[in-house]
Amino acid sequence: MKADTHPTYFPSAKVVCACGNAFNVGSTVKELHVELCAKCHPFYTGKQKLVDTARRVEKFTEKVAAKAAKAAVGGKKQKTVKRAAMKAAKKAQKKPTRLDETL
C-alpha cells in the first residue's frame, strides 16, 4: 500500500463564521471560514421569510382542485369498476359451448 495517501486530520479545526461565531469541528483543514452558521442562518434563527415568486403555491392548489374535480366526474377507479361490471355482465350472457361449462 502507498504511504501518506490520506490527508492529515485535525480533530479540533476552527470554523469561523462571517457573523463572528467560532466553533471547533474535525476536518482536514486547520481553519475554515464560512458565510453562514447556525447562529446567523435565517432558518435556525426564525427570521426566514418564504417568498413565492413563481406562484408555486397557487399552481399547486389549482392542480389539486382540478384533480379533485376530474375525480368527481369520473376518475380512473370508476372506469375500472364500470369496465369490470360490463365484463361480468357480458360473461353472464355468454352461452356455454361445451358440456362441462353448463355444470
From TrEMBL:
Keyword Ribosomal protein in annotation: yes
Residues that coordinate or bind Zn(2+): C17, C19, C37, C40
Coiled coil location: none
A Pfam family this chain is assigned to: Ribosomal_L31
Keywords, alphabetical: Metal-binding, Ribonucleoprotein, Ribosomal protein, RNA-binding, rRNA-binding, Zinc
InterPro entries: Ribosomal_bL28/bL31-like_sf, Ribosomal_bL31, Ribosomal_bL31_A, Ribosomal_bL31_sf
Gene3D superfamilies attached to this UniProt entry: Ribosomal protein L31
Family in the record: Belongs to the bacterial ribosomal protein bL31 family. Type A subfamily.
Primary role: Binds the 23S rRNA.
HAMAP family to which the protein is assigned, alphabetical: Ribosomal_bL31_1 (MF_00501)
Annotated protein name in UniProt: Large ribosomal subunit protein bL31
